[in-house]
Design goal:
Largest sheet of chain A: 7 strands, parallel
Radius of gyration of chain A: 14 Å
Strand content of chain A: 15-25%
Distance between the termini of chain A: 12 Å
Structural class of chain A: alpha/beta
Low-confidence stretches of chain A: none
Helix content of chain A: 40-55%
Strand order of the largest sheet of chain A: 4-3-2-1-5-6-7
Oligomer: homotetramer
Number of strands of chain A: 7
Shape of chain A: globular
């Protein structure tokens, strides 16, 4: 059965504890909703935390690594795909996710969000600052949502995925 | 738990019945071995047959589509990843599979086999003709194997994956 | 002789007249500086205007199209490279340019800017609004510059390219 | 003016002297025909030799590197594009060249030839062995040509590019 795939994206090495805690909880809630978690595959930061949270809840986890090999992959990723594309794999994450939750921000994450907006994918920015929200909403207000907790983010995903206003 | 991922590759629209029957059986046997099946995602030809065979046997199926959307995806693929990369997604399939089984041949398939050889991935050519075998063996005899049945191909995969002479 | 390559990026179909005028002048000034212009290759908007401006001034123009064919390519591009990568070609533009000038903004452009910042490339935002500047500076203040005219943008490029603080 | 772009492809580090001599002469003749040379960008082997030959004859040279930086780029390449795509850049070379000349063979080169055949690009195999010719002709006999000298390869390119049976 075709699985709904939720991208959980955010900083790697530079992630803060709050962002990783959020990502872990998002991973858990996505798994409990029966959806698969898609990350950038690495063990670092938000990627690793989201995969770990989903795995602990019995979810299916997929990782699209930038590297041509699996060094640095999160041990909590079930399906490790070594793309070898470098940062161009961000475009693949953006297109492959049915929707994305964003925990934290850096340049790589910003590119994923922009590419997901370009592809008209629903995006939930979790606890994003005002400038970040304002900037991404200026690109396409229709697809960019904001949540102040992991639970709220999941409710937003549920709403948008059930509305059928997305492409599965 | 990190899943072993087996690429099952071959022609789409131009596939013959024998190749699709082989692919379906390979899909089934890969699933029964507990491995995930990775294909080019489309419903056509070898891709669709391999996914269908694996799905029927309760296996996990992943598809890396060349398109930016999921039109044309096989309904038997659980995790549909729309790469938007066109034929460059062949490089991602080659790097992401732990090993590949090849059913039939055309230009796209040849590129995947060549890229998998480049990445030193074990490859089993199923019922390939003499020229095809000779050509790919001339590129790297160490990684190119030949099988005359789906069962033999799976035995070869089992051997090479257990030998640890591959990168997981 | 290795040519310095300047990416001129911005919206395609949705570009405004002011942005296209800016892009044409940037193209002209880049050409007069002896640098090559790199665009997304299409005739639409900022891409087409930049190539046209550079061509008229005798410059060399290179275009990295998202499509696998050359339909829609600007007639002012000398070297048309059909990548077939879709939006993943934005990552190639970001890595291939020695520096970028940005005229206008949309989701695709934002992804290119973010990827260029990720790669530590000098970026000049031309006439960008306050939110855009603030957002991209929050990602990496060191590489993001702002200019209020095409001439000023070129001066900024000249400064940064001569400082040697960039990777050629 | 839109330039005709000829891919000159073949092994890097493993190239033989004869292949590099051929590549250098191909580069020279392509340049003298007024066409641009496209290579994989690196200084090694056929790539470097083709760029050097073209440069010496006053031609324009473009290189699509697999790496995200320009380390290892041939000094004879005018336009160095660091794709960061790894071997997926082979797909970009195949799509971007109007036609290809192939000097020598290995797994990476084979993937480029297969992808160029997939894209229906005219290909000239220079001094290829019988198995290689037979294999690639089995994929698509219409686009695969064979030449026994650099001069003959250029004549074949001239014929096919003038026939208009290619996509520019």
């Amino acid at each position: 059965m075709r699985r709904i795939v939720i991208g959980v994206i955010g900083p790697g090495e530079g992630a803060g504890q709050k962002e990783m805690d959020d990502a872990a909880l998002i991973g858990e809630l996505v798994a409990k909703a029966g959806w698969a978690v898609l990350t950038g595959g690495r063990v670092a930061g938000v990627m690793g935390a989201a995969a770990k949270g989903a795995r602990a809840a019995g979810g299916l986890t997929i990782g699209l690594l930038p590297t041509p090999d699996t060094l640095g992959a999160s041990p909590a990723v079930d399906i490790v795909l070594a793309t070898g594309l470098g940062e161009a794999r961000n475009a693949v994450i953006a297109l492959s996710a049915n929707a994305c939750v964003v925990c934290g921000m850096n340049a790589g994450t910003a590119s994923e969000v922009a590419l997901a907006i370009r592809a008209k994918k629903p995006i939930v920015l979790l606890r994003a600052d005002e400038t970040t929200v304002k900037f991404f909403r200026s690109l396409d207000a229709d697809v960019v949502r904001v949540a102040m907790s992991a639970g709220e983010a999941i409710e937003q995903l549920r709403g948008v995925l059930m509305s059928g206003a997305h492409s599965l």
